[in-house]
Amino acid sequence: MRKRIGYIYTLPVSLWITFFFVIPTLIVFVFSFMRKKLNGGIVWDFSFADISSLTSGHIAAFFSKVSAHLTLDAYRAILHPAFIKVVGVTLYISVIATVFTLLLAIPAAYFIARSPRKNLLLLLVIVPFWTNLLIRIFAWITILGNNGFVNNFLISIGIIADPVQFLYSKSAVILVTVYTSLPYAILPLYSTIEKFDFTLLEAARDLGASKAQSMRKVFIPNIRVGIVTAILFTFIPALGSYAIPQLVGGTDSFMIGNVIARELTLNRNWPLASSMSLILTVITTIGIYFFVTLNSVKANRQEGEGFSLRRSAHE
């Protein structure tokens, strides 16, 4: 009886995942092996009669017809040096943005967790979610533009004579990505840091560790879960970013999301766009698996070391 109730509880989630994740992913997977029509879309030469042949025993004939219409042309196109360069730029921007986001998010989350006004500070972190992402990006365009606040300020104090081109570069994409990712990194880090026992830092200092050593050897390992979560929440959205490089990036900051959108809307090459989407999904899955595995290995290692220390203390 309990198992049946459990199935009923999980049914809505299972249906949601099936219809809005599994089925779309399968469609993208199938489209990536299809041929492109001359006017866009895919070549689809299958009918309900072909599908019904599966039930009538003509399985070999069905799969023979399917294999005749499948191709690896889209995946061969991915090996083009131009696309490989775009993948490299995407990884570079995503990694750099993730590193800078962490460097800002850890001290910010630490300060919020130790502040007596943490509720107010958390509210300030959440406030950007109340504004549409596009509006925030256009706000940065206003700030960094040739007639923006930064250029006007630098000109007014005499540091520069002519406006500096801050926009339409990798730096602009990284800056805006860091800004949009900060709340997603601060919140999980704050949740982890708030549960941290800060007396451990004092104990480490009493045992002779410097402030930097106590932070590196005691504090950082104990907030590892928050750090891994912050990395995933920053790196994965950055990989698939479209609006930020489209609006503040230039020709040297074209990312995978922009290429996929171009192939879907302008070139109408659905197989190529589908294959790129699958490559992006694979990269994301590998990243998640790597960080989760690394986190589990470190946790098991530390648990083993702690057990050895407790055993030695008993003996």
Protein described:
- The chain is mainly alpha-helical and 315 residues long.
- The chain is built from 15 helices and no strands.
- The protein is globular.
- The chain starts with a helix and ends with a helix.
Q: Which architecture does the CATH hierarchy give at level 2?
A: Orthogonal Bundle
Q: Which spans have pLDDT < 50 for at least 5 consecutive residues?
A: 305-310
Fold-level CATH name? MetI-like fold
How many domains? The number is 1
Summarize the structure.
This protein has 315 residues and is an all-alpha fold. The chain has 15 helices and no strands.
Keywords, separated by commas or semicolons:
MetI-like fold; mainly alpha
Chart the SSEs and their pairings:
Elements: H1 2-31, H2 48-52, H3 59-69, H4 73-78, H5 81-114, H6 118-126, H7 133-144, H8 149-156, H9 170-194, H10 199-206, H11 211-222, H12 224-239, H13 243-248, H14 256-265, H15 270-314
